[in-house]
UniProtKB/TrEMBL annotation:
This is GDSL-type esterase/lipase family protein. It comes from the Bacteria. It comes from Flagellimonas iocasae. Residues 1-19 form the signal peptide. The keyword Signal applies.
């Protein structure tokens, strides 16, 4: 009985940790920053998703001929992005959006079917709100820190690729294999945590993604 009482004391805190609005403050800060940068008279490309996007600080410099907004928010999953489609994407009326999610979904041990279902709902809403928007799904990347889960990541990438194939206006970009050295992930493209990329990692992303700006 005592153990049950202790467990119940922690339930509110556990629920709070997974509260759907846990990114509200960060999203508001992202909006404030991008609202000050955005020129509504120019075609806009949005990069959004989890920390691999958030930490791509020179993405605008990489694509100087485009107006690029970075609305990435660290630790996010597809289900988090779904809550903020207006704030992070639609409000900027982009002609193109690059989405990087799924990395944290797999780490959180979500079912692949649930991950893909959520991504499909996101694509559906975006296309309903803006029929001319091009959507690019960036594959979850390999990393040293999460290499043990590589099988599940590869399965998710195949599913996201098939999703893109069946929907007009949606592309899938594979960054998984370019980040490998034969069958192992490259060791020199990450910062100390083995999860987030350094400049060499973003060089790879740039080379893969630049054709989608042409």
């Amino acid at each position: 009985m005592k153990k049950l009482f202790i467990l119940l004391l922690f339930v509110p805190f556990l629920g709070l940790a997974q509260a759907p609005n846990r990114f509200d403050k960060e999203v508001m800060e992202i909006q404030k920053k991008n609202d000050s940068l955005w020129d509504s008279s120019k075609p806009t490309t949005v990069f959004t998703g989890s920390s691999s996007v958030r930490m791509w600080r020179d993405v605008q410099d990489r694509f100087p001929n485009q107006q690029v907004l970075n609305t990435g928010f660290g630790g996010s999953q597809f289900s988090d992005l779904e809550l903020y489609l207006d704030e992070l994407i639609l409000n900027y009326q982009p002609v193109k959006v690059f989405i990087y999610e799924g990395d944290n979904d797999v780490s959180a041990k979500k079912r692949l079917r649930d991950i893909v279902d959520t991504s499909e709902r996101i694509v559906t809403v975006l296309q309903q709100k803006n029929q001319n928007m091009e959507i690019v799904l960036i594959s979850p990347k390999p990393s040293i820190a999460r290499w043990k889960m590589r099988g599940k990541y590869r399965r998710l990438n195949r599913k996201l690729s098939r999703l893109a194939e069946k929907i007009d206006g949606v592309d899938f970009v594979d960054v998984w294999y370019p980040m490998l050295d034969k069958r192992k992930v490259k060791q020199d493209i990450f910062i100390e945590d083995g999860l987030h990329m350094n400049t060499k990692g973003y060089d790879i992303w740039y080379e893969v993604l630049k054709t989608h700006f042409e």
